[in-house]
Amino acid sequence: MSKRRTRSDRGQILAAVVEASGFKKGDIAKKAGYSRSAYYKHIESPDLDFSILIAYGKALHYDFTDEFPEMPKYLLEEPDEIYGKPKTLEEALKLLEQWKNKHMELLEKYNRLIEEKMEKK
Question: Are residues 73 and 108 in the same domain?
């Protein structure tokens, strides 16, 4: 499969990527937020909307921008995969406390900036 594709075969590319993934079509469609019947309509669409390709790309962890460089870039990982999902309640509480402290720090800085700005007036 060549990396550069024309705009006219988006559905075909989706079908090829899903087939190569080895996953069940219905499972991938569901993970992308669609029904299995919608998937079959999508693969028949030569001008499939990029938002639909992005949903499948995220579900498959596949970057369709290799085939369609004109489409918007998108994040492949889920936020939990990027930041790390806590494995225990203790880790979750520690992470919650860290984010709470960071939030409070930023609020305090913001309030100081507002006060300084008001004093200059």
Answer: no
